[in-house]
Each structure stands twice: as structure tokens, then as C-alpha cells.
Design goal:
The complex is a heterodimer of chains A (339) and B (285). Chain A is built from twelve helices and two strands, in the order ααββαααααααααα. Chain A is mostly helical. In chain A, strands 1-2 form a two-stranded antiparallel ribbon. In chain B, 79% of the residues lie in helices and 0% in strands. Chain B is flat, with a radius of gyration of 25 Å.
């Protein structure tokens, strides 16, 4: 029984929600309703959480289902055949797989060192008042839609490379045995190297912001102890901060790699869409995502469509593995920091 | 002898330090210069084409003047529907993970899968929706485009909702429980209110993310040259029109593509800056 005169606090809290508490009978009904509502909300949120799993399951099942005709027709040879001929309906995935991996590797080779150095700048050198603006500016690079990188790459960056950079590279390395093959050929402007460079700009913010976060998580005592011993800033970063933050940095790099592998529009504009594996990085090529984007709506015939979906499946499997590894590393790091 | 050896070691350490710190400066300048370069070119190329007719006229056939009204409208509609589908789903899922099942096995699995979906290639999402909706219905449609964007919205909203609800102090929840408030009301009346700024940030970031998305729309919503708000038919969208026009040989179309690119970029940057300031207010208040 409630004391008379003052209503229970919960009734006050519920006022204005259309729940009138007149007498004990109503009160029981209201409590019953609240209990039901509570259970309903719990199950609703649980169902929503499970929906996230269903989406992933749906993606996997639909990709496998869609790629079955192609996988049945070509079997395992789909993975290593180079032919891609819609007329004779011969399809092999190795050229797009090669392009995807090479462009991503180029991107990471550039973005990782640059990103780490930016993180060093932001955590050790930058004056306090400048840290936020510079950090935000770098992160805005991640906010620019990939189609913008694409149009910029096609009309500005590729012509610039073609006219000013690539002729120089070709003549510079023309005499050196291995590099002359790797960087040979006419300067097209568009090609594997250009796509890799644009991807590098796109993943730079991911590498930078995660590296900066894990650098900042290094206990100041460790750094102060190293400085106290007389270490230079570089030595502190190289021998104290980096080893301590290693797992997190690798996680961030893998996350960036996952992005680079799956990036579509920016690459589609500048890769040249040529289904062949060329020895030269300056030659046009293709990636999995660029092939799908370029050809899917024009694909006639079930086998063609199915081959493109099979490409999508391969891409999803590769990125899934990379991203899962990245997440596991970052989770391990969080567990260490938390415990 | 020993002294000179030591001072030369000291000099080389200092030299190495100066070089690497110089590299750190250079790397930052390098990174920032891309942002400046891209924005400068966008403004230069896009601004001259920006006029009222861009917002009032349809996409033109090659060789004549026109605007971007139908793709802008299509983008707005599909983005709105995607947010209307994706936000409630994402908030509910995030609520379960932070409020009901914080230490559940299910939550751990969902968090892991959600983080993967967050970075999954968007073109794969397009293929998924193509298989599930377009292939079943037999035609491209605005609905399919909106659903594929919604699939991209969900993980962003789940992530921020969970993060923000976990930041809400437990004392608030205990206070609500102590006055006899049922859990669902505690969540909606107390926890949501405390985490509101952060959750709004998540939705804004999700909008910023999908308003530039092209890949999943290519073979779900396709494109439409004409004014059409029929969501059962192909619908034009700004990113897809930019893609088509930029790769065309016609100068008028390329010009419009730049203008469209400028519009999208300004919208996206404005959204992410608003989202960031909201997030900062949340932290400092």
C-alpha cells in the first residue's frame, strides 16, 4: 500500500504518457502493461541485433547462390585462368585478382609510412592548439566520397602523371634491369600505378587516425622515462612508442587494406579496365570491383552475370579475412588496455 | 679520443632525429596538400557551372544545357528512405548490445560482424541487393537502391549507438530503476536522452557516408534520364549521374559532373563537420 496524499514517484515519472493511475485495479493493469511492454522492447531490440547477423548471412548466401553457375562451369580453374571473354563465355578471375592485390599493395607501401609519420607529428611535434585542426583535416580526406577521388583522378591526377611524372620515371629506370620492366611502356596516365596512388591517398586517413589513437594510448611514463635517459624524439618513437603500439598499428593497417581491396569508384575511373596481367605497373589493368562496376549492367547471359557475382564472392572472402584479422588484433589490444 | 667518438655519436643521433622529424613534417604537409588540391580543383571546376538552372532543370541530352534536378531529387528520396529504414534498426540493435545483453555471447558476435560490415566493400552490398530484390522483381528500382543504402546505414548507426549508450553512467540507470521505472522506459526516457547528441552524430555520419555512395546504386537503382519519382522504376541519383557524365566524351556532361561532384562534396563535408562539432560538445559538456 502506498501512503495516501503523495503519489508514488514512478507515477509522477509516467505522467503525461496517458497512463492514469486512478485506483488499485488500474494500477495492476498498468503494471501488467508495462511488464508486457518491457518484454516486447527487449525482444524487439534482440531481433534487431540478430538482423545484423542475418544481413551478413544473406550477403554470403546470395553471393554463393549467384555464383554457382559460373563455379559449376569453370570449377577451380576460375581462380587462375586469365581469359575473360564474354563472346565465347570463357571467364577467369586471375587478372582482376592480380590488379586488386597489386593496387592495394602499392597503396599500403605509401600510406603506411606516411600515415605513421603523420601520427608521430600529431602526437609528438604538433603544438596542442594545432592538433585537432590537423587531425580533422586528415580525417576529412576519409569523408570525401570515392567518386570524387575518381573524377579528380581521371581529369587532374592521371593527365598530370602522364605528362610530367611517368616519362621521367620511364627514362630514369629504363637502364636498370628489373625496374625497367616493372615501369616500362608508354605513359598512359591511367593504369595500375595511378590507381594504387589514389588508393594510397584514400586509406591514408584510416592508417593515420588509428595510429594516432594507439600512439596516444602509450603510457606517458614510458615516454618520459626514455626522454629522461636522453633519447631523442625519434628514438622514443622508434624504440618505445612503436613497439608498444605495434598490435594496434597492424590492426589499423589491415583495416586500411580492407578498404583498399574493396574500393570501387575511384579505381574504376583510373584503372583502364583491361583484362590482362601486364608486367608493367604503368599499363592499364583491372580490379575485381572495377570489373563488376563496369560490366555488371551490360552483362548479357546468365554465365556472364554469374561470373561477375563469383568475382564479388572472391572479393568478399578476401576482405572478410583481412577485416576479421584486423578486428581480432584491435580487440586483443583493447583487452590488454582494459585489463 | 673517447670524447670525439662520443660527440660524433651524439651528432649522428641528432642528425637522425632531425631527418626523421623533418620527414614527419613533410608527411603531414603531403597528406594535407591532397585535401587542399582536391578541394581547390573541385571548387575551380564546379563553381563555374553552379547556377540556379542546375537545381531546376533535368539532366540534358548530350550537347544541350540542363541541370541536375532529377538526380538530386532521386538521391534525396533514396537517402531519406534508407535512413528511415536503417536508423531504427541500427538504434534498436545498438540498444540491445549496450542495455540488455552487454555481456552476452550474441553481443560479442554481433559487434564483430557489425565491424566487418562497416568496412565491407559497398559494391558487394549492391550485388546482394541485386540478387535479393532486382533479380526477384525482374527490374531495377528505387526501392532496391534505397535498401542497399540502408544496409550501409545500419552498421554505422549500430556502432555509434552502442558506443554512446555505454558511455551513459550507470548511476543514471540505477536512479531510474530506483524510482520503479521499467527497463524499457529507463532506456527510452533516460539513456536515449543522455546519449542523444552522440546518436544524432552517428546518423549524420551515416547520411554523409551514403550520400556519396555510387557502387551499390549502379545495379540496383540504375539511372533515369527523366523526371521520375516512381520508386518501382529506375531512379537517377547524383553519384551515378556523375559517374556516367564524367566518363562520357561530351564536354557539357563533364561540366555537369564536376558541378554535381562539388554539390556532393560540400554536403558531405558540411554533414561531417556538424557531426564532429556535436560530438565535441558532448565530450566537453
Amino acid at each position: 500500500m502506498q501512503p495516501t496524499g503523495r503519489p508514488p514517484v514512478v507515477d509522477v515519472a509516467l505522467q503525461g504518457r496517458g497512463i492514469a493511475v486512478a485506483d488499485q485495479m488500474d494500477r495492476a493493469k498498468v503494471l501488467q502493461r508495462l511488464r508486457l511492454g518491457d518484454a516486447a522492447y527487449r525482444h524487439l531490440t534482440r531481433a534487431a541485433a540478430i538482423t545484423v547477423l542475418v544481413i551478413l548471412g544473406g550477403i554470403i548466401i546470395s553471393l554463393v547462390w549467384g555464383s554457382l553457375p559460373a563455379l559449376r562451369a569453370f570449377g577451380i580453374s576460375f581462380l587462375y585462368e586469365e581469359a575473360w571473354n564474354p563472346v565465347t563465355e570463357k571467364f577467369g578471375a586471375i587478372a582482376p585478382i592480380y590488379g586488386t592485390i597489386v593496387t592495394s599493395v602499392i597503396a599500403m607501401l605509401i600510406a603506411v609510412p606516411v600515415g605513421l609519420f603523420i601520427a608521430v607529428f600529431l602526437t609528438e611535434l604538433c603544438p596542442m592548439w594545432l592538433r585537432r585542426p590537423v587531425g580533422i583535416a586528415i580525417e576529412l580526406l576519409a569523408g570525401i566520397p570515392s567518386i570524387i577521388y575518381g573524377i579528380w583522378g581521371l581529369f587532374v591526377f592521371a593527365p598530370f602523371l602522364q605528362q610530367h611524372v611517368q616519362p621521367f620515371i620511364i627514362s630514369l629506370f629504363g637502364e636498370i634491369p628489373v625496374l625497367s620492366n616493372l615501369l616500362a611502356g608508354p605513359p598512359y596516365g591511367i593504369g595500375i600505378l595511378t590507381a594504387g596512388l589514389i588508393l594510397a591517398i584514400m586509406v591514408l586517413p584510416f592508417v593515420t587516425s588509428i595510429s594516432r589513437d594507439v600512439f596516444e594510448a602509450v603510457p606517458p611514463v614510458l615516454k618520459e622515462a626514455a626522454y629522461g635517459l636522453g633519447c631523442t624524439t625519434w628514438e622514443v618513437c622508434r624504440y618505445v612508442v612503436l613497439p608498444y603500439a605495434r598490435v594496434g598499428v597492424i590492426g589499423g593497417v589491415m583495416l586500411g587494406l580492407g578498404r583498399a581491396l574493396g574500393e570501387t569508384m575511384a579505381v574504376t575511373f583510373v584503372i583502364g579496365n583491361a583484362h590482362r596481367i601486364s608486367g608493367s605497373l604503368l599499363a592499364p589493368g583491372t580490379t575485381i570491383s572495377a570489373t563488376i562496376a563496369n560490366e555488371f549492367t551490360e552483362a548479357v547471359g546468365d554465365l556472364y552475370t554469374s561470373a561477375l557475382i563469383a568475382l564479388g564472392l572472391i572479393l568478399f572472402v578476401i576482405t572478410f579475412i583481412v577485416l576479421a584479422a584486423a578486428r581480432l588484433m584491435l580487440m586483443r589490444l583493447n583487452a590488454r588496455v582494459g585489463g | 679520443m673517447a670524447a670525439t667518438f662520443q660527440s660524433s655519436l651524439y651528432a649522428s643521433r641528432r642528425r637522425r632525429n632531425r631527418i626523421s622529424m623533418g620527414l614527419a613534417f613533410a608527411a603531414t604537409a603531403f597528406g594535407l596538400s591532397w585535401l587542399v588540391l582536391i578541394l581547390a580543383v573541385l571548387l575551380w571546376e564546379g563553381f563555374s557551372g553552379l547556377s540556379l538552372s542546375v537545381f531546376t532543370e533535368m539532366t540534358p541530352p548530350p550537347g544541350s544545357a540542363g541541370g541536375l534536378l532529377n538526380p538530386i531529387a532521386g538521391s534525396l528520396i533514396m537517402t531519406t528512405i534508407a535512413v528511415l529504414i536503417g536508423t531504427p534498426l541500427g538504434i534498436l540493435a545498438g540498444t540491445y548490445m549496450a542495455e540488455y545483453g552487454r555481456y552476452d555471447r550474441l553481443t560479442t558476435v554481433v559487434r564483430f560482424i557489425n565491424d566487418i560490415l562497416l568496412s565491407a566493400p559497398s559494391i558487394v552490398v549492391g550485388l546482394f541487393v541485386y540478387e535479393v530484390m532486382v533479380a526477384q522483381m525482374g527490374h531495377f528500382s528505387g526501392w532496391a537502391g534505397a535498401v542497399s543504402l540502408a544496409v550501409i546505414v545500419v552498421p554505422v548507426v549500430v556502432r555509434t549507438t552502442e558506443d554512446m549508450l555505454i558511455l551513459v553512467p550507470d548511476t543514471l540507470r540505477e536512479a531510474a530503476a530506483s524510482i520503479g521505472l521499467p527497463r524499457s522506459l529507463m532506456i527510452t526516457k533516460v539513456a536515449y536522452r543522455a546519449a542523444r547528441a552522440g546518436m544524432v552524430t552517428g546518423v549524420l555520419l551515416a547520411i554523409a557516408r551514403i550520400s556519396g555512395e555510387t557502387a551499390p546504386l549502379l545495379f540496383t537503382a540504375l539511372n533515369n534520364q527523366f523526371w521520375s519519382l516512381n520508386l518501382n522504376a529506375p531512379v537517377a541519383s547524383l553519384p551515378v549521374v556523375i559517374f556516367q557524365f564524367a566518363l562520357s566524351p561530351y564536354h557539357d556532361w563533364q561540366k555537369l559532373a564536376w558541378t554535381g561532384a562539388l554539390i556532393i562534396t560540400l554536403a558531405v563535408l558540411a554533414l561531417s563537420i556538424i557531426a564532429r562539432t556535436l560530438a565535441v560538445q558532448r565530450k566537453t559538456s
